[in-house]
Write a structure and sequence with these properties.
3-stranded antiparallel β-sheet; PyrdxlP-dep_Trfase_major; 14 helices; 333 residues; 7-stranded mixed β-sheet; alpha/beta
Length: 333
Amino acid sequence: MVDLRSDTVTRPGAAMLAAMMSAETGDDVYGDDPTVNALEAEAARLSGKQAALFLPTGTQANLVALLSHCERGEEYIVGQLAHNYKYEAGGAAVLGSIQPQPILAAADGSLPLDVVASVIKPDDAHFARTKLLSLENTHNGKVLPLAYLQQAWEFTRQHQLALHIDGARIFNAVVELNVTLEEIARYCDTLTICLSKGLGTPVGSLLCGNADYIKRARRWRKMTGGGMRQAGILAAAGLYALEHNVARLQQDHDNARWLAGQLTAIGADVRRQDTNMVFVRLAAEQVQPLQSYLQERGIIISAGPVTRLVTHLDVDRHALEQLVAHWKAFLAG
């Protein structure tokens, strides 16, 4: 099957599985799993932060990040369509009594700083205390410009806010901008990194920040059920991914660019392509028939009025050629 629903569907290859099976392990709750410790140290080094924390999922990493920044009755400013606002079951509000203040993102995925300024609450007992600005990089495939990140960093210093980046696909931004992770991470207090999307591990995310922050986050990880034992088996996949699967993200971006051009050429209504994502508008009467047509031919998509196609390490150019050929045949009736 060719699965273009998301880059979360990637499976570990033989080399990654071998690294996992040969991993040295300990008990991470006691802090003595050497492979977890090595992964956290490498994430801290790459991001230029003092420390990092390995968590089982991106949702928990985002939740722990917010819980470690905000107390009950405080709020974070976030995009209306941001993952840690819209797609994570309201965890910060339910479990942390943290109020989200969502605003609409600009066309480039950034949060307009004049709008952010307008929703910062006065220091008044009537209001939740504004504590944090949360950005997403990439956002629906869009890379936040470095100039914007610097402006956001300076803005949060002026307004006594912390700045967090949900960096689930931050290495896609690293590759697209041709910079190091540290060159992006210098403009935030904390960031998350998802290992199980384009980097191809089976599970896992990282949270990076200063030592005191990560100490708080480690307690929140335990409280929210994220303490793992012989987690080195999973951390080994993360170490392998950071060494071998970052630069190759460029292939995913190139494949997405190629796919957008080919679909446009056969008459599909391609709306945009950013990093490893292609967005195609479908007529209402095409949505279910196209999904069924492709699935019968071994290709899985999540069809909708605007359909997102995500390229990743388990989808090569030959697979995309098959997709284009079948899509063309579908359009021809």
